[in-house]
C-alpha cells in the first residue's frame, strides 16, 4: 500500500499561512513579471480562472470580484515545502519526494483497519505544524493513490484522507474519474481514447490486456496495469541524481530593442545558472539562449541557439561568454524583445568530470577557488549578487513583479506579533 500526500493549492496556501485574511477569498499567484496565472485558490477557480491564462485577459474579473493578485514567492514556497516534507518524514516510512507539493510514503507496515485514522492523523499534524492543508490518497498503486488524493481533496467527508483498498472502491473511483484525469494520460492522448469510446478510467481499465498491448504503447500498458491494482510505476527520475537541465528566464516589463540590454540580461541569467551548477557540484557542456518578442503582436519572432562548450564547466565567466556568443547569432534588430532565457544542458556530476590533457590545471584550480569565494560571499546576503564578475551588470532590466516578503528566511520580513497583557486589561476593567 502506498500513499500520496498532495498539498492543496500549495502556492496560495503558503501565502495564507502568513496572511490569514486571504482565507476563503479568491487569490491568484502570478508567474514571472506578473504575466500569467500559475496558481489559484478554489474561490478563484470557481470564477472561471484557469492556470496559464494571461493577467490582462482577466483584469475585468479580477476587478469585479476583488481578487487578490500576488507575485510568485518561490523562495518561500521552497522553504514551506521542506517543512512539510520534514514533518512527513517524521510521521511515515519510505518518503519519496516527487515535486515541491507532492510526496509518496510507504504504508505497508500499517494495518488496513488502521489506515483511515492513520492517514487523518498525518493530515492533521501537517496542518498543525506547518499550516498547509494537505490531502492523502492511499491505494495499492501510485496511479490509484493519485486518484484517491483527488477524492480526498474534493470531498470533505474523507477528512483529508481517502483509502482505496478493495475492488468495490476501486471500481467506483475509476467510474467517477475522467480519462483525462488519470496520471500519465495527457490532453491529446485523452482525446484519442475518447474517440475510441473510453471516457472514464474504468472504461480504459476494463479493456482486455490483448487490446492494450496491440493498440497502445508500453507506457499506457503500465497505466492500465496500475489502474487494475498492479504496482509498476515509480518516480520517473532519481531525486539524488543531477538535473538534465537548469534554466533561468524572465519576462521584461517593457520591450527591449538593443543587443546591449539583452547581453546584460543574458549574462545575469547565465551567472545564476552557473551558481546553481556549483551549488549541486555539477558542470555543463552546452548552453542555450532563448529570446522572444511579444507573442500577442503580429510581428512575432522567437529563436534559440545552443553553443557547445569544449570542456565541462560551471565557471560564471565562461558561461556568460558563451551565452553572449549564442545570443549574437539569433538577435535581429528592429524587434522589441519581451523575454529571454538561458539553459544549461548536458549536465554531468562533479564526480564524473574528466578534464582535457591540454587543460591548464593550475588555472582551473585558481578559477575554482575564485568561484568558491564568490559564492561564499554572496551567500551572506539576501540578494545573492553583491559580488559578481565585471562582465555582468549590477542592475538588471526592470521587471513588474513586486518584491515578495520572505517570512521564513529573511529577518526583516518576519511577522511582528503585538500582544496585550490580559491581566492589565482585567485590572483596568475592575477599576473602571
Please summarize what this structure is:
The protein is an alpha+beta fold and 432 residues long.
- Assigned CATH superfamily of the largest domain: Reverse transcriptase/Diguanylate cyclase domain
Cα end-to-end separation: 64 Å
Judged by helices, strands and strand pairing, the structural class is alpha+beta
Shape: globular
Q: What is the helix content?
A: 25-40%
* Biggest pleated-sheet summary: 5 strands, mixed
Number of helices: 15
CATH-derived topology of the largest domain = Alpha-Beta Plaits
Radius of gyration: 26 Å
Secondary-structure element series = EHEEHHEHEEHEHEHHHHHEHEEHEHH
The share of residues in extended strands comes to 15-25%
Q: What order do the strands of the largest sheet run in, or round the barrel if closed? A: 5-6-1-7-8
- Identify the CATH architecture of the largest domain: 2-Layer Sandwich
- According to DSSP, the number of beta strands is 12
* Overall number of domains: 3
CATH class assignment of the largest domain? Alpha Beta
Low-confidence stretches: 236-241, 427-432
* Average pLDDT level: 83
InterPro entries: DNA/RNA_pol_sf, DNA_pol_Y-fam_lit_finger_sf, DNA_pol_Y-fam_little_finger, DNA_polymerase-Y, Rev_trsase/Diguanyl_cyclase, UmuC
Protein name: SOS mutagenesis and repair protein UmuC
Family: Belongs to the DNA polymerase type-Y family.
Amino acid at each position: 500500500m502506498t500513499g500520496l500526500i498532495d498539498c492543496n493549492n500549495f502556492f496560495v496556501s503558503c501565502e495564507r499561512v502568513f496572511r490569514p485574511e486571504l482565507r476563503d477569498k479568491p487569490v491568484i499567484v502570478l508567474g514571472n513579471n506578473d504575466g500569467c496565472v500559475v496558481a489559484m485558490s478554489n474561490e478563484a477557480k470557481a470564477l472561471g480562472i484557469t492556470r496559464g491564462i494571461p493577467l490582462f485577459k482577466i483584469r475585468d474579473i479580477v476587478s469585479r470580484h476583488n481578487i487578490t493578485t500576488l507575485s510568485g514567492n518561490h523562495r518561500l514556497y521552497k522553504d514551506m515545502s521542506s517543512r512539510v516534507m520534514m514533518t512527513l518524514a517524521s510521521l511515515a516510512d519510505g518518503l519519496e519526494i516527487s515535486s515541491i507539493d507532492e510526496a509518496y510514503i510507504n504504508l505497508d507496515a500499517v494495518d488496513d483497519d488502521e489506515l483511515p485514522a492513520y492517514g487523518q492523523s498525518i493530515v492533521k499534524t501537517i496542518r498543525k505544524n506547518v499550516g498547509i492543508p494537505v490531502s492523502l490518497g492511499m491505494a495499492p498503486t501510485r496511479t490509484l493513490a493519485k486518484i484517491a488524493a483527488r477524492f480526498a481533496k474534493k470531498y470533505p467527508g474523507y477528512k483529508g484522507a481517502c483509502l482505496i483498498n478493495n475492488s468495490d472502491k476501486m471500481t467506483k473511483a475509476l467510474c467517477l474519474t475522467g480519462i483525462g484525469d488519470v496520471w500519465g494520460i495527457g490532453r491529446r492522448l485523452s482525446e484519442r481514447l475518447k474517440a475510441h469510446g473510453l471516457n472514464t478510467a474504468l472504461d480504459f481499465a476494463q479493456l482486455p490486456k490483448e487490446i492494450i498491448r496491440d493498440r497502445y504503447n508500453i507506457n499506457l500498458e503500465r497505466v492500465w496495469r496500475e489502474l487494475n491494482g498492479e504496482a509498476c510505476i515509480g518516480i520517473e527520475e532519481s531525486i539524488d541524481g543531477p538535473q538534465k537541465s537548469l534554466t533561468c528566464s524572465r519576462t521584461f516589463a517593457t520591450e527591449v530593442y538593443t543587443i546591449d540590454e539583452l547581453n546584460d540580461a543574458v549574462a545575469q541569467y547565465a551567472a545564476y545558472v552557473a551558481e546553481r551548477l556549483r551549488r549541486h557540484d555539477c558542470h555543463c557542456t552546452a548552453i542555450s539562449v532563448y529570446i522572444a518578442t511579444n507573442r500577442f503582436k503580429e510581428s512575432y519572432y522567437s529563436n534559440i541557439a545552443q553553443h557547445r562548450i569544449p570542456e565541462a564547466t560551471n565557471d560564471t565567466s565562461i558561461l556568460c561568454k558563451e551565452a553572449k556568443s549564442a545570443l549574437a547569432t539569433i538577435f535581429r534588430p528592429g524587434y522589441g524583445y519581451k523575454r529571454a532565457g538561458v539553459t544549461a544542458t548536458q549536465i554531468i556530476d562533479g564526480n564524473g568530470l574528466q578534464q582535457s590533457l591540454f587543460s591548464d590545471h593550475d588555472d582551473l584550480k585558481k578559477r575554482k577557488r575564485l568561484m568558491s569565494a564568490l559564492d561564499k560571499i554572496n551567500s551572506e546576503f539576501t540578494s545573492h549578487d553583491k559580488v559578481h564578475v565585471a562582465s555582468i551588470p549590477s542592475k538588471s532590466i526592470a521587471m513588474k513583479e513586486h518584491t515578495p516578503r520572505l517570512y521564513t528566511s529573511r529577518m526583516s520580513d518576519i511577522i511582528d506579533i503585538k500582544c496585550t497583557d490580559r491581566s492589565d486589561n482585567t485590572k483596568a476593567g475592575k477599576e473602571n
